[in-house]
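Narrative summary of target 7.
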Amino acid sequence: MGWMKDETGLDKCAANYVPLSPLSHLVRAADVFANHPAVVYGDHRVTYARYYARCTRLASALAGMGVASGDVVATILPNIPAQAEAHFGVPACGAVLNTINTRLDPDTVSYIFDHGGAVVVLVDTQFIPLVEAAIARMDGPHPQIIEVPDAAAGYPSTGRHPVYEDVLAGGDAGYVWQLPKDEWESLALNYTSGTTGRPKGVVYHHRGAYLMTMGTVISWRMVLHPVFMQIVPLFHCNGWNHAWLMPLIGGTLVCCRDITAAAIFDAIADEGVTHFGGAPIVLNMMVNAGPDERRDFSHMVEIFTAGAPPAPATLGKIEALGFNVTHVYGLTETYGHVTECIWREADWADLDKKALAAVKSRQGVAMPMMEHITVMDDTMVQVPRDAQTQGEIMIRGNSVMKGYLKNPSATEEAFKGGYFHSGDLAIQHPDGYIQIADRAKDIIISGGENISSVEVEGTLMGHDAVLLAAVVAKPDEKWGEVPCAFVELKPGVKVDEATLIAFARETLAGFKAPKKVVFQELPKTSTGKIQKFELRKLAATL
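Modeled conformation, tokenized:
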């Protein structure tokens, strides 16, 4: 199909075919936008020429340390310039970038180091104790630590490890980037939240990230030289690929280490921020900001929100402040957002504020770089578009992962039937817009972080006083959802709420620990299965 009868001499060659890679955006920007601001963070302000040079020195330095093509280089960094530079500098030497969640516990970080095989890790000084504790628990070879101090934020160097700026100084600004020979080569390794057992390693290819950057420009209605504030952690789907995107259109990346309403308003007013992404918790933060935190601005600010369905009331309130919000949806396995709630002028223009906010909270339709995203039943048949019938969101397109690292059975299962199975239950409206109805797994999404109820339950069950534990999502004004634990105690044993929460925090990352503990007999079916739907109803009233 599509081949002419005579294609003699019409072969691929260096002149007409180049593997797609987001790295090419910065190579071009270093020339086209050489003197335009590229990265801003406090006093750190670099042009595209300097940004490229710094990323080049990083690539050279890593190669000089013995990092070879296909090796994994990890980072445990907040949204600071070094994290953005790693997105280009690490793959520029042929290595694979593994950005690790800074909120994880040492045991999980240790597992990721071992499983991914990181040979080097860039670490913000704030997280040096976490990384040192994780390395001490490793079974395999230890990664070399490169420390990234941030003295202005209160984190000067410990003096125990090579320092990032010294490493860059030792790199060669003339180093030639190792661009991929095949766009299917691995670009990044990201780990899921581990909602069912250990986290799975999700592998991205260059092609998917490149097309993600192109599709986002279209969907976000971006023009030349946007000012983008990196609020989404760069360890979440590589910040939805936005760091790779900015050089494409000469955008300015404004790094944000600590996400506060004041910091966001200041950046909008002082730096002219035009775009940012964030979970609904960020929207809530902006809406509830006090007068001393807010700043006046005259331009419209575009927001992508994802991580959980935003409350219609929140959408209504934030748009009144001068923000235009687009709800998007995706997963770690899809490089971030792959659906968008596109504005439908003809159908929605006359809706009242409440109804409008409700339709804008839908997950929407496939973004331009994707192929088919829909809702199917268990037999892989399209469900009726009746806004009632539930099925699973199924995804097909170029911005879907290569698969799970060292886990072919999980990969095969995820891709069964020629689609990626999201695990999210949804309905589909007559216009094709998807809307999540429930989750196939008992996942709690708190501030954009996925929490396994099974993991929290298992931890609580480890306490000597606990007979049974069930954990569900409790609505929370700030975080969207927080874990709420319902606990049955052993006969004749007592323990209080504070003690159990403290016990959980000894093992779990802080955001995973329950924020509320209710002591009661758990509702069960005749077969002894705990009726979580009853507990969810109860949690909603607490």
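Residues 443-539 form a domain with the GMP Synthetase; Chain A, domain 3 fold (CATH 3.30.300.30).
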